[in-house]
Amino acid sequence: MYQLTSRQFFVDQLPKLLKAAPPADLKGVVEFTIEGEGGAVWWVDFGQKTVAKPGPKAPKFAALVRAQERDFVALVEGRMSPADGLITQRLHLAGEAVALAKLTEAIGKIAARAS
């Protein structure tokens, strides 16, 4: 395993992962707010398989994710599970219950493919 940045993940890895094998159950837009050095806000449309920086008009979000840079990297590298992140409050999720359940499952699958 290697240490990447959240920017590398959203720009380089996630678009390829979404196109190769998108999470079938997860549709809609998720806003990821990554805080700290190197952090940014990203909109991921799982239905359209796109990753973008926020635009002038916000869509209806299926879920919101907030994490520090180091915690998010640990999550996508598989060093922290979504459950561990929630329990330790290093990962914050908001949104519809069904979307959140599908999102946490998708994050686990994406982490396994990204590592």
Estimated helix fraction: 40-55%
**What is the mean pLDDT?**
86
Overall geometry? globular
Major β-sheet strand ordering = 3-2-1-4-5
Helix and strand pattern:
HEEEEHHEH
User: C-alpha Rg, in Å?
Assistant: 13 Å
Number of strands: 5
Distance between the termini: 6 Å
Helical element count? 4
Question: What is shown here, in short?
Answer:
The chain has 115 residues and is an alpha+beta fold. The chain has helices at 6-20, 69-76, 82-87, 97-114, and strands at 29-35, 41-45, 50-52, 61-68, 91-95.
Write up what this structure looks like:
The chain is of the alpha+beta class and 115 residues long. Helices cover 41% and strands 24% of the residues. It has helices spanning 6-20, 69-76, 82-87, 97-114, and strands at 29-35, 41-45, 50-52, 61-68, 91-95. The chain has a five-stranded mixed β-sheet. 27% of the residues are buried.
Layout of helices and strands, plus pairs?
Blueprint: H1 6-20, E1 29-35, E2 41-45, E3 50-52, E4 61-68, H2 69-76, H3 82-87, E5 91-95, H4 97-114
Parallel strand pairs: 1-4
Antiparallel strand pairs: 1-2, 2-3, 4-5
Key phrases:
4 helices; five-stranded mixed sheet; 115 residues; alpha+beta; single chain; 41% helix
